[in-house]
Amino acid sequence: MQTELVALLALQADDVVVYGLEARLAALDPRIQELDRRRQHLADAVARAAAAVEAEEKKQAYLRDKIAEHKQLIERNQAQMGAVKTMKQATAAAAQMEQAQQIVAGEESDLLALNRRLEEYRAAQQGLKGELAALETEQESARACVATERGEIAADLSLARAKRAEAAARVPVPLLSRYDRIRGRKRVEAVFPMHGMSCGNCDTAIPLQRRHVMTASAAIEMCEGCGVLMYYSPE
Ligand SMILES: [Zn+2]
């Protein structure tokens, strides 16, 4: 085999290794994204639960103020009861008082229901917080695992890139630039052996004349069908 072909095939082997490592590195991103997505999902639920608790707490404070206010009013009315002069005034005052007490009773039953609801909301919030903490603990090892893998692949990748650079230096510049151009079009491999009388990549038949040149001189030619580099391989 011709020296430049040997050098080119060695370069391609190195490029395939680099490509594989880059693909493995890129494959780690979705794993991190999936961990983040699951965490965010729970964090959002915790935030929604906290907002619900806060809203109920505001209602609770408002209702408590109203009850205190209405009770004060009743006390004042009670104090004034002694001052009424006529039977008619006494009847009116008693009716007013009864009405006020009914209002307070209604508010107190609302407050009771609200307190129960608030307890449920707080329990739900605590439950979700617990789930989030558990998920974060659970994810710690998965995240550490990804980080370790990323570090290992990155180390392999820098070695593979250095090896690739050495291999590239052994390929004649014109051939190297042709090869790089073809590989740049997102092909993993750019060099293929002839397959019988056709291109080893796309199976396009090679004209007889060119085939002769290739077998006789071991020339590296470009396929007219798919644009890859082809070489003659005797076996
Ligand atoms: Zn082809």
Describe, in plain words, how this protein is organized in 3D.
By secondary structure, the protein is mainly alpha-helical. About 80% of the residues lie in helices and about 5% in strands. Strands 1-3-2 form a three-stranded mixed beta sheet. Strand 2 (about 220) and strand 3 (about 230) form a beta hairpin. Helix 1 (about 5-80) packs antiparallel against helix 2. The N and C termini lie close together (about 10 Å). The structure holds zinc ion. Zinc ion binds near residues 199, 202, 223, 225 and 226.
Key attributes of the depicted protein:
mainly alpha, Helix Hairpins, 2 domains, 78% helix, 3% strand, rod-shaped
Domain module tally = 2
* Strand percent estimate: under 5%
Largest sheet: 3 strands, mixed
H-E order: HHHEHEE
Looking at the structure, the CATH topology of the largest domain is: Helix Hairpins
What structural class do you assign from the helix and strand content? mainly alpha
Q: What spatial order of strands do you see in the largest sheet?
A: 1-3-2
Using the alpha-carbon principal axes, give the shape.
Answer: rod-shaped
| Percentage of residues assigned to helices | over 70%
Quote the average pLDDT: 93
Number of strands: 3
Describe the secondary-structure layout.
Elements (H helix, E strand, L loop, with lengths): L2 H79 L5 H83 L3 H12 L6 E3 L14 H10 L3 E2 L6 E3 L4
Parallel strand pairs: 1-3
Antiparallel strand pairs: 2-3
The structure holds zinc ion.
